# Entry
Amino acid sequence: MSETFVTAVNVARRFQQGDVSLEALRPATFTIRAGDRIAIVGASGSGKSTLLQLIADLDTPSSGTLNWPALGASGTLRPRHIGMVFQSASLLPALSAIENVEVPLRLLGETAAPREAALAALASVGLSGIADKLPDELSGGQAQRVGLARAIALRPRLVLADEPTGQLDQPTAQRAMDALLDSLADSDAALVVATHDPVVAQRLHTVWRMDHGLLTLPASETTP
# Structure
């Protein structure tokens, strides 16, 4: 049995707006294991981002339990064990591509050669040639792949991508997905991608569906 990275039991997230309680995520139970390749599909506003933020320890459930058995305790997970890719690359404009990738490496001080590790991450997404360019000199696809490189530079065991191709045309989106999948091909890292694009979803082994906060898993999925 593969290592268990995430277990969730009846995890829910509600937001209060005045007297109204909005249920962004209805109680959900699921497991993420080493090597998983999961697409979370659903329309915009269906709860995909809320679910990813909970898994990433960026938010706290309103109820239920969420644990990361093989990764660590809450507050210690990012970016060392969990890498996050956002819909917008969110690069620091004053830093070059390689300097953007170096940021988490230098903050954590976990490698004696952050520049070399950043170069390797850029190479893994096919961007060795643009290391010294500033973000405003990059195409949208290149900027998104720099964001991917930054997320995987520390070799996290779980990579979460929130609509990573949402702002890209279809050919560029496929190149970005190629880079992401290739960068994880030789590891047991798990990958979870939230997307509304069926072409992206079909690249992954397992599909979870979100609809108005309700998470539906395939019939073959087992609960923790």
